[in-house]
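Notes, p. 3: input format for complexes.
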Amino acid sequence: MSTAIHWFRRDLRLTDNPALTAALAHHDEVILVYILSSWSTQHHWSGSPRQEFLCGCLTALAADLASKGGRLIIRQGPPEDALVQLLIETNATAIYTNRSPDPFGHALEIRLAKIVSDRHAQFLTYQDAAIHERDAVLTGEHTPFRVFTPYSKAWLKLDKPPTTPTSTRFSPSTHLPSLPLPSLATWGLTRQTPPITPGEAAARQRVEHFLDGPIFQYAATRNQPIGGFNSRLSQDLRHGTISPRELYQKCADLASRFPLHSPSIATFINELIWREFYFQVLWHHPDILDHELQPHYRQLPWHSHWRPESQPAGPAFDRWANGQTGFPIVDAGMRELLATGSMHNRLRMITAMFLTKDLHIWWMHGESWFMRHLVDGEIASNNGGWQWSSSTGTDAAPYFRIQNPWSQTKRFDPSGTYIKKWVPELRDLPPHLFQEPPAPGLPLAKNYPLPMVNHQQARDLTLAMFRR
Ligand SMILES: Cc1cc2nc3c(=O)[nH]c(=O)nc-3n(C[C@H](O)[C@H](O)[C@H](O)COP(=O)(O)OP(=O)(O)OC[C@H]3O[C@@H](n4cnc5c(N)ncnc54)[C@H](O)[C@@H]3O)c2cc1C
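Output follows (468 residues plus flavin-adenine dinucleotide):
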């Protein structure tokens, strides 16, 4: 009888899970394990919204497995130690896992491949987090793309991998010790935001809801921050409660059934391609986690050119982070993030540009804040979004294209509904007041601050900074 281990990481589902399907196909018994990280209280890049979602996904996964006769084993600590321990306990001959798209996960896989083979077992990894792997979409010269549009054209031309059959045969592994399912207390955290319903079933419901209606209007509505027009699937793609292959397949089927709506469906698929574009940017340029992708922008004189984990950015950053800038649209976005662990894409762009181009604070501080507070925090997309907004990344917004928060409000929240939802001090004001700076010295409301900078002056400084 052969035994293998399936190591769940960011693939917290049973449907179309390539590594899990392969393990079950080739072994009599498959031990199912998730290994908790062991940091506590403060983590530079993780916070309670994402950890709480993770806890919920693990609880749902354990219940799904139990309903099919399986048992999720929970361990904690460095994965190298936990997996070797499990190999010893089970005499397993192989460890199966889906590959991580980020450099930290990849480095771990390289270490594990050696450790596991030293123990005469196999370490087998599978493509899962993206439809096309990080080096599958290349230019004619076999080099990585740096610009999105040609990347997306090449991506669309490739044959799409099929989904894998869903497994139903699990063994209970009752003899193995397991920690209890985690809660926020595991990391010394407390709840910050109401949780988004976690788990595979909830993710599937979100998919069904989105494909049942909103996707047909997506091209026209995706930039509106209020109204629920977007899919809200980013945390599911991040934790693997939905398979990207299955999501793409469903979209492609829908487009062939409703050709009139195919442009809107294609716009949605385009966003899924952005996600994969940023995966491959990070894969080919892992140093973007330490500095600007474009070398000539590495010496820009930001106000806070030190790493966020070494020193906080200062009081101006705190006003931005807590939604107290005096720019209603920026404050609404930042307060939505604190209250929900999420923020609409348009607002991510507005608030990120404001931090970098109006406050001249190094994007890395914003990147780190977003990672700690976003339920969908994804290293590659977050870095990509921040480097795009600060004009330092691949295919970034050119430095002279600086969004004006007042005119962005006019375009994307003309009725002020979004602002009024998140900035209650402004609830009784007419929306046109949110679309231009207030008269000097006159705050919009009693408890609401004056704009902390003059946008035109801040913009001129940014242009001068980049030109220098
Ligand atoms: C500064 C900044 C930081 C960001 N940080 C993250 C992050 O940490 N995690 C994250 O998943 N996305 C991030 N994004 C991208 C985007 O804002 C979110 O993916 C999107 O808002 C999630 O909502 P949704 O699922 O309703 O998106 P939808 O509009 O429904 O899009 C569908 C899916 O496409 C992908 N997607 C959409 N837009 C982008 C994009 N610009 N880049 C990469 N993938 C995209 C996401 O997986 C998303 O779930 C960031 C964008 C910016 C500008």
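The pocket of flavin-adenine dinucleotide is lined by residues 222, 230-234, 237-238, 271-272, 274-275, 278, 344-345, 348-349, 352, 370, 374, 376-378, 381-382, 384-386, 389 (CB under 6 Å).
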